C-alpha cells in the first residue's frame, strides 16, 4: 500500500493539519480505517493517536482511494474537537440502551404465568358421591 500526500493545510485555530492523501491498494479491497491510519502515520511521521480519518473515497473498479485525515498537535486538542461528534454517538448509545430496557420490561410482562390448578372442594366431591349412592339404591 503506497501513500502520496496531495494536499496539506494547517488549521491553527483548531490546532490541526488537514491532509488529503492518495492511497494505492493494488488488487485488494479498500483498506480499513485502522490500516489507513497506520499508513497516514507512516507517511507523516506522526503518532496514530493524533490522527482522525474523516473520509475514504474509492471509485468503483479503481485501485486508489482518496483519504481526508486530520492530524492534531496533541491529544487534548483532538479530544476537545472530536468530542462534538462523540456526543451524538453517546446519545445514540443511551437511546439504544433505553429501548433495550423497554423490550426487556415488555418481555417480562408477556411471559405466561403458571395458572393455578383448580381443585374441586372436598365437600362437593362428597355430595356427588352421596348422590350416586342414593341413585344406586
Describe this protein's structure.
- The protein is of the alpha+beta class.
- It has a domain at 2-74: RRM (RNA recognition motif) domain (Alpha-Beta Plaits, 2-Layer Sandwich).
- Helices cover 46% and strands 26% of the residues.
- The protein contains 3 helices and 4 strands, in the order E-E-H-E-E-H-H.
- The protein has a 4-stranded antiparallel sheet with strand order 1-2-4-3.
- The model has no long low-confidence stretch (mean pLDDT 82).
Task: Give the topology, please.
Layout: E1 2-11, E2 16-24, H1 33-44, E3 51-58, E4 64-72, H2 75-110, H3 122-136
Antiparallel strand pairs: 1-2, 2-4, 3-4
Determine the structural class based on helices, strands and strand pairing. Answer: alpha+beta
SSE string, helices as H and strands as E: EEHEEHH
| Helix percent band | 40-55%
Please count the beta strands (DSSP E, at least 2 residues each): 4
Largest sheet: 4 strands, antiparallel
Strand order of the largest sheet: 1-2-4-3
> Roughly how many Å is the radius of gyration?
35 Å
The overall pLDDT, averaged over residues, is 82
Query: Strand content of the residues, in percent?
Result: 25-35%
Number of helical regions: 3
CATH fold label of the domain at 2-74: Alpha-Beta Plaits
The CATH class of the domain at 2-74 is Alpha Beta
Shape, per Cα inertia axes:
elongated
Low-confidence stretches: none
Amino acid at each position: 500500500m503506497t501513500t502520496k500526500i496531495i494536499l496539506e493545510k494547517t488549521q491553527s485555530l483548531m490546532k490541526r493539519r488537514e491532509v488529503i492523501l492518495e492511497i494505492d491498494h493494488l488488487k485488494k479491497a479498500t483498506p480499513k480505517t485502522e490500516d489507513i491510519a497506520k499508513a497516514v502515520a507512516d507517511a507523516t511521521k506522526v503518532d496514530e493517536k493524533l490522527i482522525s480519518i474523516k473520509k475514504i473515497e474509492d471509485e468503483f473498479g479503481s485501485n486508489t482511494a482518496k483519504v481526508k485525515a486530520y492530524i492534531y498537535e496533541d491529544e487534548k486538542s483532538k479530544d476537545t474537537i472530536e468530542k462534538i461528534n462523540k456526543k451524538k454517538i453517546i446519545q445514540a448509545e443511551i437511546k439504544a440502551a433505553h429501548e433495550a430496557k423497554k423490550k426487556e420490561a415488555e418481555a417480562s410482562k408477556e411471559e405466561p404465568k403458571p395458572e393455578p390448578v383448580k381443585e374441586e372442594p372436598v365437600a362437593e366431591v362428597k355430595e356427588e358421591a352421596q348422590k350416586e349412592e342414593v341413585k344406586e339404591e
